[in-house]
Amino acid sequence: MSDTTNQQDLMRKLMQRAAPGRAEFEDLVIVPIFAVIVALIVGALIMLATAVDIATIGKSYLALLYGAVGSLNAISETLTSAIPLVLSGLGLALGFRAGLFNIGAEGQIIVGGIAAVIVGFSFEGLPWVIHLPLALIAGAVVGGLYASIAGWLRATTGAHEVISTIMLNLISYRLLDYMLSLSWMQREGRSDPVSKSVVPSAELPRLLTDIDPNLRLHAGIFLMIAMVLLVHWLLFKTKIGFEFRASGENPDAARYAGMRASLIIVLAMATAGALAGLAGANQVLGVLERATPGFSAGIGFDAISVALLGRSHPVGVLFAGLLFGALEAGGRQMQVDAGVSIDLIGIIQALIIVFIAAPLLVRAIFPWGFQKPASGRKE
Amino acid sequence: MDVELRGITKRFGPVTANDNVNLTIRAGEVLGLLGENGAGKSTMMNILSGLYSPDEGQILIDGKPVDFEGPGDGIAAGIGMVHQHFMLVPVFTVAENVILGVEPTGRLDYLDLKTARAQVRDINDKYGLEVDPDALIEELPVGIQQRVEIIKVLFRSAEVLILDEPTAVLTPQEVEDFFGIVKSLRDAGKAIVFITHKLHEILEIADRINVLRGGRITGEGDPKSLTEQQLAEMMVGRPVSFDVQKAPFKPGETLLEARDLVVLNDNDDIAVDRASFHIRSGEVVGIAGVQGNGQSELIETLTGLMHAASGSVSFLGKDVTHASARERHRMGMAHVPEDRHKSGMIANFTIYENMVLNTYYEDRFSSGPSIKWPEVLKTAAKYSVDFDVRTPSIYLKAGNLSGGNQQKMVVARELERETKLVIASQPTRGLDVGSIEYIHKRLMEARDEGDGVLIVSSELDEIMSLSDRILVMFEGRIVAEFDTAAGPVDKNAVGLAMAGVHA
Known about the structure:
heterodimer, A: 379 residues, mainly alpha, 72% helix, 0% strand, B: alpha/beta, Rossmann fold, six-stranded mixed beta sheet
């Protein structure tokens, strides 16, 4: 009898979650925070080196802060910029988890956007409860299908997804240019490459126009939050998510466990593409209300940084996306107020990633922020 | 040269890897160092070779204290280490590998290979190593590669040689030759530290034995007066049983049958050559053979991970030649993979995730698309208790477990289901005596409950003690079969068959 109680005690003890390790906390929280700080400092040094005087540097960082969170408009802009970054970042994070380095979010955003805009201007008179979801789904489905081309190539021929998604990006740019030159796509009576406008029933409604008609924040934010939750559920609570993560961590062990690698690759790419396509749909239905040349604006590449910064975790991606959104919105303000080019923001974003990728460097710069690493390795 | 470790203590954070260790190594003597995984053997040897510096204590060479600052200092002082995993450049010749890092050079940095070859030949002659200096490493058998590692150390004029689990990769015959080399090194006045967890080897080769447990020296003695039983007890800290408890041999119906199985490896060479055999319920079939003779490919084909080029496999009376790994798994085929790190577990996953790595989709763990994690947690905790996986929490990453506990985790996952046939490849490789005993016990329980068990191992002793029938593989073919149920099997005969010599 005591044997069974003993056993149950042991089981209970085993099921207690170990306190999160200090090292884990450092990796997830402290390193990113310090990375941002170092990046800002190095950004300042770069400005200094390019003969910007100190007063202007101070002014530009104040403008950065103000433009990011300093007013309702700033917050609205930050969130508006963050939405597509988070959406496509989620897709990329999911791919990374499954061991797929998908560079193709940009292309998936474009084809998703094209599909959404076509649905968005083609059906007049539909109620919005049908039209808007239809346009969003069109974006997700087409983005997903486009990405699964790369997944299918990888699964059947071994063609590496990095190469094939880069090529698909190039194809998508030209596809967009071509489609914007088609007369049924173009805005009536115009010959410049701009698509017809999305009809109101397919628009993602703006949320804050009652306060100020210039506020651009739109209903895509709900989509973003829903997707963060959905991806979290998918990755950590479902069978397919388990398979994604297992194949990403150790493809051999996944194969030995009877998981079907090729199916997983195609599915993971398709899901990632669907999220990027959704980001594209979000841009054309919520921000631009039409498709223009280069409407993807490098979001798909910034999203790679967002996914990496967010450690491929849905919640991390949310925060990273918000940070990058803030940098973008603040950067615009910086350009206006201090006359510092918005390109500096690109530099700062890149620096953040460099420092995130080199945690040892960050630890070396800020020794007091971290526990002393153990000397030598345990056997 | 004599070396003395005096009061060595080394801590890693809260873990004390070596606790006040005293050890004497004498010229012209083989010191056997015995200990479980994690007992602190490697830490101690890394201190001796200069890789770590001790927190307390001293190293004395010929009575004079020395201070090692880095990995180069050990070899400079004459202490050389032969690692378990060879550090050789496969596309280089023996001589090139030997001189790597200490190349004799002439004017203008001209590489003097001629001198190098001559020096390698000198070492060869002196210790009877018989290695061709111009042979390419990748074309040499493992046993010879190991000699190259020894030449490397001798070339750097080592007086103390540390051999870390040197016999793990050798056939029984190669082990005999290797022992000859060790003896000739000893007779030439070298000091040898022989690290192993194989008891009979240490009794055969060592002049003196030290046993390490939990970072301390727990036993010291003369191999002439010690038995394996006593050594194992010193090593584990409790009596260990070597006799595998077996119920009487009562084979039942045939579970698995392979007919004329031919398997090609990745290079399209024949890895398994017309193998035919069967496994019955209630019997243990052992496949003996030196690694790389087609055992891995055979197992992958039986478990559905590789496809047969020709021939067939039937399981429970059904033809499964083309069935997937998961289908076979569902039919009751359990598979303990040969390399747990590479294919048996995911180091970055928690223990509970690893416990359901291939059963997560079953109804007991999932409903619809989602996994019932509370159910998984409960089951994983139960498995851990049942299989004695020692961990503070199942939320820990599997990579944090010791090798023995990782293997118990894998075995628990495979055996705690309705199984009909258990295929275990190298089930105890690299494990300590305690874990080996435990895993053997569980495998035997599976047999006694009527499962068929197929064991592949490069440890002949393991095969001999567990199997009811032994198949020997050589160059992809099953070259011999021995029936242990019929009477004692001559170990030498099995060893010869493993080397491809027909009886």
